[in-house]
Write a structure and sequence with these properties.
The chain has seven helices and nine strands. By secondary structure, the protein is of the alpha/beta class. Helix 1 crosses helix 2.
Length: 228
């Protein structure tokens, strides 16, 4: 029977997956970050205390999920394109145990919103890369509106995170510099377009990237998903 990794229950975001994610971050990620990139994290004071939120970052490398989780110091369940769960059984197994779940990047489906609700029944936060795939062009553009739809439907604010310094992988000790900045939360009470542009502008400013505003789009999709 084929496993559908887009459907996850709150019970799956458990102590064992949390430990697995932490092991990857602190036994593999942190030594890598400090030896090869000299990681710096700024703005942890902006992380909401005692509140649920969506962590949304720019996406420049395969290291980003571990970088973000380390920066916010919380277990994070990441949305990942469904194709990543189809490449190899080992990759699928690791992503499963790291707490990721599959999404259709072409459109936001009802099953995705249902899984998001399951995430927030647990102690985990939700992690999203609003631009979709990895972008190394130093421009914040073509932002997928799904994260804003989820924010408004679930009434969860968005925590902007910027990542710079690993656009190109570095294997020379202490040569690279990885900088992570955490911005001010973006309120879910804003309009969908305001959420998208506020996140994009903050991340672009923190990265020193160019920001291209998104065009106005209909919010009918949000209303349909809210009713689901």
């Amino acid at each position: 029977m084929t496993r559908h990794y887009s459907k996850r229950s709150a019970q799956e975001f458990n102590f064992f997956r949390r430990c697995f994610q932490q092991l990857w971050i602190y036994l593999i990620g942190v030594p890598l970050f400090y030896i090869f990139y000299r990681i710096e994290v700024h703005g942890r004071g902006n992380i909401p205390k005692g509140a649920r939120f969506i962590v949304a970052a720019n996406h420049i490398s395969y290291l980003d999920p571990f970088i973000v989780s380390y920066a916010v110091k919380k277990p994070v369940a990441y949305m990942a394109k469904k194709e990543l769960f189809e490449e190899s059984w080992l990759q699928t197994l690791c992503m499963d145990w790291l707490g990721a779940f599959a999404v259709n990047r072409e459109k936001l489906e009802v099953s995705t919103l249902k899984t998001v609700k399951e995430v927030y029944k647990s102690s985990w936060m939700l992690g999203i890369f609003p631009q979709g795939g990895i972008r190394k062009n130093k421009t914040i553009e073509k932002i997928n509106k799904g994260f804003a739809v989820i924010s408004k439907a679930a009434k969860w604010d968005i925590l902007p995170v910027s990542i710079t310094g690993c656009e190109h992988y570095n294997w020379i000790p202490f040569k690279g510099k990885l900088v992570v900045k955490i911005g001010k939360p973006v309120s879910h009470k804003l309009s969908q377009e305001e959420i998208i542009n506020s996140w994009g502008q903050q991340v672009a400013d923190m990265c020193g990237y160019k920001f291209v505003e998104s065009e106005q789009e209909s919010e009918n999709e949000q209303e349909k998903l809210t009713e689901a």
